[in-house]
Amino acid sequence: MSTFLRKDPVVDPAIWWWLAAAVGVVIVPWHMQQDGMRLSGIFALFAGDADAASALGQSLFHKRFWFWPVIAALVMALTAFRPGLDRRGRGNLLLIAGLGGLIGIIAQGWFIGVRGWSYPFLERAFGDLEERQFGVGWGGAMAFAAFAALTTTGLALRGLFGGDRFVAGCVGLLIASITLFTVWPVMTILGQALRPPSDMTFSAAFMDRMFHPKVWGMACFYSGSSCGVAWNTLMLGIGTATSCTVLGLAFALVVTRTGFRFKKPLRLLTVLPIITPPFVIGLGLILIFGRSGLINQWVAALTGVELGRWIYGFNGVWLAQVFSFTPTAFLVLIGVVQGISPTMEEASQTLRADKMRTFTSVTLPLMRPGLTNAWLVVFVESLADFGNPILLGGSFGVLSTEIFFAVVGAQADFGRAGTLALILLIFAAVAFMIQRAVLGRASYVSMSGKGDSGLPTPLPDSIRRAAYCIALPWAAMTIIVYVLALAGGFVKVWGRDWTPTLSHFGRAFSLEWTSNGILWTGGAWGSFFTTIQLAAIAAPITAAIGLLAAWVLSRQQFKGKTLLEFALMLTFCVPGTVIGVAYILTYNVPPVEITGTAIILIICFVFRNLPVGVRSGMAAMSQLDKSLDEASTTLRASTFRTLTAVVLPLLKPAIVTALIYSFVRAITTVSAVIFLVSAQYEMATVFIINRAINGDYGIAIAYSTALIVLMMLAIGLIQLVVGERKIGRRTAAPDSTPDIAAPPAGARA
Amino acid sequence: MTFVPNPNAAEVRLEKITKRYGKVTAVKPLDLVIPAGSLVTLLGPSGCGKTTLLRMIAGLERSSDGKLSIGGKDVTHLSAGERNVSMVFQSYALFPHMTVLDNVAYGLISGGMKKPEAHAKAEEALTSVGLKGFGPRLPSEMSGGQQQRVAVARALVLKPDVLLFDEPLSNLDARLRRSMREEIRALQQSLGVTVVYVTHDQSEALAVSDLIVVMRAAEIAQMGTPRQLYEEPDNVFVATFMGEANHVRGTLEAETAETGTITLDGFQTRLKHRNLPSGPVDVVIRPEAIHLVDPATEGCLNGKVRTATYMGAHAEYNLDTPVGSLFVIAPEASLLRKAGDAVGVVLADRGVFAVKP
Question: How many other β-carbons are positioned within 10 Å of the β-carbon of residue B113?
Answer without folding.
Answer: 17
